Description:
The chain is of the alpha/beta class. The protein is built from twelve helices and twelve strands.
Amino acid sequence: MNIAVHQLLMPGSPTFTVLHLSDIHIDFSYTPGSQTECTQPLCCREGEPAPGRAGAGFWGDLHSCDIPYWTAEKILQYAAALEKVDFIYYTGDLPPHNVWNQSRTQQLYSLNKINQLLAKTFPNKTFYSAVGNHEAAPCNLFPTPNVRSDNISWLYEVLAESWIKLGLPPNTRESIERGGFYTTVIRPGLRLISLNMNYCSAENFWLFINSTDPLGQLQWMIDWLQYAEDNGEKVHIIGHIAPKQCLASFSWNFNKIVNRYENTIAGQFYGHTHNDEIVINYDEVDLQRPISMGYITPSLTTFSYLNPGYRVYKMDGYYPGSSYWVLDHRTVIMNLTATNMYNQTIFMDEYVARDAYQMENLFPNDWHELIERLKNDIDGPLMGLVYQYYTKSYANGAQCDHNCRRGLLCDFISFRSEDPHSCDSIPN
Ligand SMILES: [Zn+2]
């Protein structure tokens, strides 16, 4: 498979650029000067700071706090001005983390307000959206159609409307209104499949009634992957939660599907953890051969103890038959400490993947080789750098000891949840 890709990567072959925004989590009640350490899960909203303690920073705070509206606005304006992007992947989680005290009205307020900001900041750009776990009220709870006492159409109808306003073709409406997922062709020969991963998540308690492929989403995905294969299309999958964090049945079935369609799926893009992570899918028989790459793009929010950030992917392609692989990616962060100190937004290119990790390409095998290098030098500087980027440079490698590093590496290759052997290859 990689031979064919190399042939396509001749000098001068066309590329395109995708901005990925995830986990914006704007706190509309963010209050500069308020308590940064509080008894609730989300702080920086109210209360006087304890004597001798600083109050919440104007631009945000490196505690359990989400970002204020004006910070999100500046980050998006910076990206819109600087990045030459063709379109945008946008993988959910808009409301703040005041999960104990949310209503449908508040969730829809966040959704409408943030999507208006995006439309204003990126005029004429198409957003390919996916639904996060925080969009529901209460969060995480997405009833399936067999639940008679509750339904989620209040959310899906608004999502359909606002996603279409952000550029999706109107023919996606029916499937978004039905299940919060859809497919559409986004470039000649490139199909997007946007999944509603709330139907995979153990935090969605409705699934304990019946978790068997809710709304037939996985079967629907198989049908479209087969269609793509039959028609020579490549596919990008976007979703909020990476399958490795799903209920085991979903996660293992998902990996089976990726195995079957490894030549069609050109990339997977997720969010949810707020950290900068990867996940490599492996051949389910030999467990050695890397077959697909999932990228977990870091969050805009600071929640918790993270700098705000976004990701830009450079991809191969633009015509039918292109590989549509990720060729490289660059992560941009806002240095929140400096921003608060100088009261001026300070951004930096945190790193560019191929350069920082000394990789020839970003194909699954290249990431596999990086993992091998890291395994052989777990306590070395490169693994320290991986941890630093994992926290969007809030922390550095010295703050992640041997066990922490092992855990991180293990996570990167755990493509199926609850697999007791997924970390066997990582030395003690
Ligand atoms: Zn989130």
